[in-house]
C-alpha cells in the first residue's frame, strides 16, 4: 500500500483513527451481508435445481403427447383446435426485498377455476393425446413462472454478491492495511 501524506498533528491522528474505526465497522457489516447473501443464494439454487427438474419432466410429457397428437391429426385440424384460447391468464408482478435486493415475485390468476376451461376445442374432432398435452402444459405453467422468478432472483443475488465482495476486498486490502 502506498504511504499517504499526513500532517503530524493530534487532530489528524484522531481523524485517521476515526476513519479506521468506521472502515473496520463497515467491513464487518459488509462481510455479514455477503455471508447472508451467499446463504440466501444457495437456498435459491437448491430450489432452482429441484424445480427445473420438475418443469423439464412436465414439458417432456407435454411434448411427447403433442408429438403423438400431431402424428394422429392433420396439421390444419391441429392448428384450428389450438388457434383461439378459451382461458386467459392474468400475471401480476410485485417485488420482494432480500438483503437490499429487489427480486420479482409473480402471481397468476385464471379467469375461471373450471378444469374444462383449459381445452380451447371440442373433444369430438381431436385426439386424446392432444388433451393430455394441453393438460400437461396447464399443469406446468405455475412451476414455469416460479422457475422464472427463481432464476431472476439467483441472477440478481449473484450480482449483489459480486458487488459486496468487491467492496469487502477494497476495504480489506486498500482502506484497512
Automatic annotation (TrEMBL):
The keyword Amino-acid biosynthesis does not apply. It comes from the Bacteria. It holds the Pfam family ATP-synt_D. The keyword Iron-sulfur does not apply. One of its GO terms (molecular function) is proton-transporting ATPase activity, rotational mechanism. Keywords: Ion transport, Transport. Belongs to the V-ATPase D subunit family. This is V-type ATP synthase subunit D. It comes from Flavonifractor plautii 1_3_50AFAA.
Amino acid at each position: 500500500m502506498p504511504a499517504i501524506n499526513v500532517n503530524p498533528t493530534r487532530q489528524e491522528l484522531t481523524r485517521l483513527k476515526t476513519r479506521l474505526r468506521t472502515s473496520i465497522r463497515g467491513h464487518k457489516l459488509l462481510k455479514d451481508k455477503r455471508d447472508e447473501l451467499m446463504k440466501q443464494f444457495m437456498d435459491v439454487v437448491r430450489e432452482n435445481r429441484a424445480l427445473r427438474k420438475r418443469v423439464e419432466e412436465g414439458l417432456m410429457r407435454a411434448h411427447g403427447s403433442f408429438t403423438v397428437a400431431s402424428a394422429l391429426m392433420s396439421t390444419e385440424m391441429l392448428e384450428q383446435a389450438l388457434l383461439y384460447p378459451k382461458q386467459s391468464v392474468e400475471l401480476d408482478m410485485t417485488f420482494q426485498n432480500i438483503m437490499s435486493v429487489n427480486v420479482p415475485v409473480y402471481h397468476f390468476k385464471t379467469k375461471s377455476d373450471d378444469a374444462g376451461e383449459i381445452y380451447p376445442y371440442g373433444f369430438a374432432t381431436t385426439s386424446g393425446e392432444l388433451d393430455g398435452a394441453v393438460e400437461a402444459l396447464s399443469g406446468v405453467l405455475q412451476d414455469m413462472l416460479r422457475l422464472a422468478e427463481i432464476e431472476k432472483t439467483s441472477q440478481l443475488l449473484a450480482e449483489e454478491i459480486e458487488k459486496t465482495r468487491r467492496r469487502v476486498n477494497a476495504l480489506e486490502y486498500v482502506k484497512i492495511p
